[in-house]
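Please describe our next protein:
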Amino acid sequence: MSAPEHAPPVEALAPTEPQLRAAASTFAMLSSPVRLHLVWLAAQGTHSVGELADRAGVTTAAASQHLTKLRLAGLVSVRQSGRQHFYEVDDPHVLTLIGQIFDHIAPDGTLAPDPPMPRP
């Protein structure tokens, strides 16, 4: 009996305890629908706090609090211009993570069907 095609290679290194804690912390940070929406929006381009708040449907104060947590977690970056703060996602790992999760979840909230596997 052969291993399923999606199984990781046997030689893959197990994650370390620090990696597991950091990953769990990252997923916990993204477990808030508002924060996940803000990260998704920031992954689409650079936006001010006000723009992100409007698009996410939250107050500017709430968006600012969430964005501060996301920045401290390393999920978004900020640039200041005068009194305004502009947020974006510039980490390719975060961009991939956000893209993958929404490829995995269909618009109706169900799991999206797996794409067809290429035949050898």
